[in-house]
Amino acid sequence: MSLVFKPEETFRGDYSYRNSDAAILRFPFPFPEDRYMYSVNIEPHVRSGPTDAFCRPFDIDEHYIAECRDRALTLELDPGRCQVLPHMMAAQWDTLELLMENLAADYPEQFSLTKEGDVFGSRWTWINRPLGIEQHFIFGDPDTLPCEPFEYITRQAQGDFAICDQREDNLYLDAGMITSQADWSLAFNVGMNFMEWHGPVPLAHQAGVFERALKYLLMLRLGQPVRRLNWTMSINPRLDTSPESYPEWGPDRASVTVENAGGKVHLRVELQTLWRLPRSNAILFPIRCFLISIEELARVPKWGKRLYRVLSSLPPELAEYKGLTRYLPATLAWLAPLDDGAQLATGIGPDITELAPL
Amino acid sequence: MMQSQIVSRPRYRDLAAEDTAGAHLLIVEGDTLAAGQMAALATAFAVVAERLQTWLVSAPATALAPGRVRRLHTVEEARTALEHIEDGFGIADRLYLQGTEPFMWSLATAAGRAGLSPTQIRMQHAGSLKRRVWCTHCHQTTENVTTNIATCAGCARALLVRDHFSRRLGAFMGVMVDAEVPGEVPQREEVFR
Ligand code: HEM
């Protein structure tokens, strides 16, 4: 895939973020069926999938440069969005290595990594062409980087990243770079265990979802990453929907009408992957966020109809938890005319290869 | 209101001494003691009476307690004493706390810094249900909250007090209640008395 970046796009202010036709067709649409409920939806993270967004270990797309800039803006306003507990240094280097190696292998026109020096090859050169970076450093020596290794590499990647330390048969949220979250606070959650940080999620605890998911993750093996999709909705293509900045973006939820819903209401999908890290035995949890307005999404007829069916049958607890309640009626009214009631194929692929011209 | 769907909320149980070989430290928030409670504690800790120290924090001078008794005036004093405990803690030691949530979690986090693992700490809630509330917007904490909606001591926003709880902060999460429609603030009710 050739990448043409849109460096001028914004995720705040005038919200100029848009998806190209190719970006729409590769979107990781999260609904294989007409109804949705929480489940242990975990599968191997292999180099294939229902759309192109699934196909690489760490996905980069046309929004890369703009998204890195948005992260830098958020960090400038609130440096606490990146936190790493002191015992996580090995996991920081694990993360840097995993990201650099995969990005360089999958996107050789954009990134390159060379290792030289003594027997361990610890003198590394990292080149990031889209962001104009050339960095020489010693792997394992934090003083040779402009900031700590986890912050360094995650400032150059799309999506949020959490690292979970594994001990006492549990996972602990001991590091994070969190600037595009769906309304949860790293500052509040840092240091919590798997059940604690999932505390607010309705219905899933009672259904045993988290108990089974945790058991599965504790056994996660090196070199066998897994993935799952999570979703919510956002008003405007805004990455920073943190609780910290809720006073800024909260009012947008009250601004949705049937007339403007198409461009304002966005489906927000997180392609979450889970990686066992080699030195630290921690788990890296990248949360790659994809945003699409429902107007763009509806250009894939199957997706527009299915979204209407899922939203109109969504359990009220989920709608409330995801913060949709206030603008769900207007969204449904906008989507309703798209649904002709036709049977839709199971699965999340778009089932078309080209979009009808606008 | 003690339990909700949100599972980060700790559950508390009546204290019972565990007959481990180590030292046993019981810290009680004195002004929450109801009649007969100390007698119940004395019974519950009889098995370890020889190895027991009880710290009474802000208790009436007449209050009695099992074990070797030490009297402290404030929770801050108790925190400092915990952090400077001689020889630190061993794995057979136990810490038992009784009092309000802000009291217990202030001491539990101090004990954590002094090297005690969470598995060595037991807690029993007593007294008021008042909460410490951490503001997700300005990150300041507001003490002694008894209402469902509280005014943030840091940024003065009206915060909805959620049941989501952080052990590290010893606090519940507070989120601006009228962010979506400014001024749309529900009735305040005293729910954490
Ligand atoms: C191990 C890495 C993981 C981390 C760091 C993580 C973190 C989080 C956080 C912070 C939330 C928001 C909770 C809140 O409202 O404050 C959340 C929500 C959720 N998580 Fe996880 N999670 C992880 C893995 C998983 C796995 C493996 C599952 C599989 C079932 C899962 C299922 C969910 C669900 C269903 C929600 C609710 C999302 C919604 O409805 O929008 N999580 N997670």
UniProtKB/TrEMBL annotation, chain A:
Question: Which Pfam families does this chain map to?
Answer: HODM_asu-like
Question: Could you tell me what this protein is called?
Answer: DUF3445 domain-containing protein
The cross-references to InterPro entries, in alphabetical order and at most eight, read:
HODM_asu-like (IPR021848)
UniProtKB/TrEMBL annotation, chain B:
* Leader peptide range in chain numbering: none
Q: Which GO terms describe its molecular function?
A: 2 iron, 2 sulfur cluster binding; metal ion binding; oxidoreductase activity
InterPro entries, alphabetically?
DmmA-like_C, DmmA-like_N
Please list the residue ranges annotated as the Dimethylamine monooxygenase subunit DmmA-like N-terminal domain.
Answer: 5-121
Extract the Pfam families matched here: DmmA-like_C, DmmA-like_N
List each copy of the Dimethylamine monooxygenase subunit DmmA-like C-terminal domain by range: 132-175
Query: Hydrolase: is it a keyword of this entry?
Result: no
The entry's keywords: 2Fe-2S, Flavoprotein, Iron, Iron-sulfur, Metal-binding, Oxidoreductase
Q: What protein name does the entry list? A: Uncharacterized protein
Species of origin? Parazoarcus communis SWub3 = DSM 12120
